[in-house]
Amino acid sequence: MATSAHVERVEIRTTDPERAHETLTSMYAAHTPRLHGSRERFRFRISGAGTDVLRVDELAHSMGLDSRQDAPYDALIAVELLSGQIDFANGRTSMVPAVGGVLLGDPHRPNRVHWSDVVVRTTRLDLAAARRVVEDLTGMPAARVDFELSAPVSASAARYFRAVVERVRRDVLPDDELLAQPLVRSEVFRQLVVAFLSTFPNSASRAQEDRPEPHSLGAEPAVVRRAVGFVESNAHRDIGLGEIAQAARIGPRGLQHAFRKHRGCAPTEYLRQVRMDYAHQELLAADPSHGDTVAAIAARWGFLHAGRFSIGYRSMYGRSPSDTLRH
């Protein structure tokens, strides 16, 4: 662990599950773990950097783990799944992201976490400091700013969040000279708070949405917004019109009518578009030298006919999926 005046860097590797547990406890929250798998082949690493109010880390843990926090995070912690499997639950909600997906842990209640051979990127913000920034941005009193265990509100919001975090991780946190400037540290933290605020459901955003606007007659109704959020958070699952309508709290025919009126397509067509976009993101991140193929990525998102996938992909992105994979 290396520390300068304004940034703390961490690089820990171990084959000892107990040391890994101690590291996770010190960096995230006290928790009670149960491990599954081979202790002999166990590998753990964590690397990253941060200031007194933010940090970004990449963590790899080779065993299966069931864990319940002994106390809440009292921080905003977003988890991006880079590989493996993970699910979060808080007693009321459960989240199971696909690879490449992002979720926000519950900052106010103990989370139960299950993972298996994971690599994740975590972005952590001090909750009290984040609430003060939200109050400055929205006018909502800091004490009333609440987040919850949740997925991003949309696929575009998730892309925006990942892009902001990646820029901070790549361009800002490695530069001690840059971080020595108070205005830079303040602005980077503000940008991350805006990313959390724009990406995950929260009381401040809901209050903004509930305010009447003079030109809101053409705005999407709540049933459409709920359907969109459900589709974008569950596109990796085997869902259809019935499940989408149930999540939107409306009948299937009513949802189809609302979707065509406000989105210009059927809910199932929108589901296909979202899955195509997620396949596109995987192709951009894939490496053919590691065995990644267009067919395998397409199949993960439900596109089993290579020809139709290629035609649909080209119509949306202007080039073939194989060109995207190669470049």
From TrEMBL:
Q: What is an example of a GO molecular function annotated in this UniProt entry?
A: sequence-specific DNA binding
Q: Which InterPro entries match?
A: AraC-bd_2, AraC_XylS_family_regulators, Homeodomain-like_sf, HTH_AraC
Write down the PROSITE patterns for this protein, in alphabetical order.
Answer: HTH_ARAC_FAMILY_2
HTH araC/xylS-type domain sequence ranges? 225-327
Which keywords, in A-to-Z order, does the entry hold? Answer: DNA-binding, Transcription, Transcription regulation
Name the source's superkingdom: Bacteria
Name of protein: AraC-like DNA-binding protein
